Amino acid sequence: xxxxxxxxxxxxxxxxxxxxxxxxxxxxxxxxxxxxxxxxxxxxxxxxxxxxxxxxxxxxxxxxxxxxxxxxxxxxxxxxxxxxxxxxxxxxxxxxxxxxxxxxxxxxxxxxxxxxxxxxxxxxxxxxxxxxxxxxxxxxxxxxxxxxxxxxxxxxxxxxxxxxxxxxxxxxxxxxxxxxxxxxxxxxxxxxxxxxxxxxxxxxxxxxxxxxxxxxxxxxxxxxxxxxxxxxxxxxxxxxxxxxxxxxxxxxxxxxxxxxxxxxxxxxxxxxxxxxxxxxxxxxxxxxxxxxxxxxxxxxxxxxxxxxxxxxxxxxxxxxxxxxxxxxxxxxxxxxxxxxxxxxxxxxxxxxxxxxxxxxxxxxxxxxx
Amino acid sequence: xxxxxxxxxxxxxxxxxxxxxxxxxxxxxxxxxxxxxxxxxxxxxxxxxxxxxxxxxxxxxxxxxxxxxxxxxxxxxxxxxxxxxxxxxxxxxxxxxxxxxxxxxxxxxxxxxxxxxxxxxxxxxxxxxxxxxxxxxxxxxxxxxxxxxxxxxxxxxxxxxxxxxxxxxxxxxxxxxxxxxxxxxxxxxxxxxxxxxxxxxxxxxxxxxxxxxxxxxxxxxxxxxxxxxxxxxxxxxxxxxxxxxxxxx
Lengths: 369, 249
Hints:
- Chain A is α/β, with parallel strands linked by helices and about 375 residues long.
- Chain A has helices at about 1-15, 15-40, 55-65, 75-80, 105-130, 155-175, 175-190, 190-195, 200-235, 235-245, 245-275, 280-290, 295-300, 315-330, 335-360, 360-365, and strands at about 45-50, 70-75, 90-95, 95-100.
- The radius of gyration of chain A is 27 Å and the shape is elongated.
- In chain B, helix 3 packs across helix 4 and helix 3 packs parallel to helix 5.
- Chains A and B meet through helix 1 and helix 8 of A and helix 2 and helix 3 of B.
- Chain B: InterPro entries: AAA+_ATPase, ABC_transporter-like_ATP-bd, ABC_transporter-like_CS, ABC_transporter_ATP-binding, P-loop_NTPase.
- Chain B: It comes from Geomicrobium sediminis.
């Protein structure tokens, strides 16, 4: 059986298309997406600040500004904004601070951060006033309101990107190998001599499925490692987030990635058995890769505090939540990880039981010959 | 020796439609004899070969090797068969001819040194030395055919099932192949092959099976057939038998 695995690996490795989809596509996707995200997060933003705003707040803006922000304090802010000097400006109108302008993606993020600075400044000012009136700081209040992002990842953009790229590459990475292993062999009629060898069909099936799995896992691990490395280069805060992640979580993430790769490769094998040609296989599997993308969008919509156990039972939502958790959400327990991995592996086992039985039928093993 | 008793094969298609490809076949392929399977396209020659190889299971009836019912899980029985699956050679484009033979030898658990010797022997007998290290993708149809035939022979089986083995071979290669078949016959191996080349039948075969629409029109020795039909022109015999097709079962 090892002979078969090694031969299939060698044969697949010699196929430029497979090598391209397994390694180059993930790398290109990762580079493109990281560049895309970093561009909108770190591209230069020109911000005008109304000179009439409280000096303390302006000082606070200046102290906490990001490297790619360009703050200009001016008393003719509206005119300069209309002349196109700024992407947006913080303008004082009566007692309202208005963020006005053509924000763009990076501008939106900057405006959000400035608003958060204003909230902090307001609270500090209020605390100082209360104290100056001789009132105990927490005297009249029933509760205090605080903002505390779960984990240091905060807005979940790293989790979204990691999950998005992982799901994209895991779907694309194993596809050529899977198409080659069953549908491709039926198309080229190489399956027939293979089924003649003195090995049970179950063992032949296992060897071929193993190759699909190995290519899928290779592709997905490559993409995960690459995206983490690139994000560390592009985003300074990523290093801090990752440094705070305990080793046990790295191991759990690895196991979850392996489990999801196994699920993806099991589905690939299933689809490859259902089809008789490489092209049919690709056409049939394309919708699955789109379904995988539901995961990151669900995780973006549902806040970490609202995650529930049933979500951990459904791929690809469960793997997405694991990635979000790793990337800063930090709410999943060991039990949640076990639930994710075991539920995924249960589905994998069921699929392999079905596909193993299918491979014993000539219709699926040999195609319509 | 392969014995078929009341074997029939039906393929079931969509909407419960069935297609009976082989009908009630009872024949024996004797050890040390070369038998040709003859018939028009679609007569059931390839299906019969696949059934003999164990690739297809019969819908009814029994296939036995040396008196033992054929069992797909019996690895010894499977190892005793070498199959060539026709002009559609089923080779891996990205492997070289040598890698093909080494791969299948390994799957049949043949020791490395012995594999080397067998590859050298087969490449000499079938004229493959010049392209042994070339990838199959770069080989001509005839060269691929030789690799596929060698693959069927690499584990020294005792039964050879060959589907149109000389299709695509040039005259020199076809003669080399025929010489190889005669040598296997001398070694008391069982050989069953399908062909459309009547001179090959005359040159190699002891027995002939003529199939028509999945049924056996004739099964017996070639010499008897010549005697019955009062000619040695196989083309004439075949055309005449097919024309009478419905009357013979």
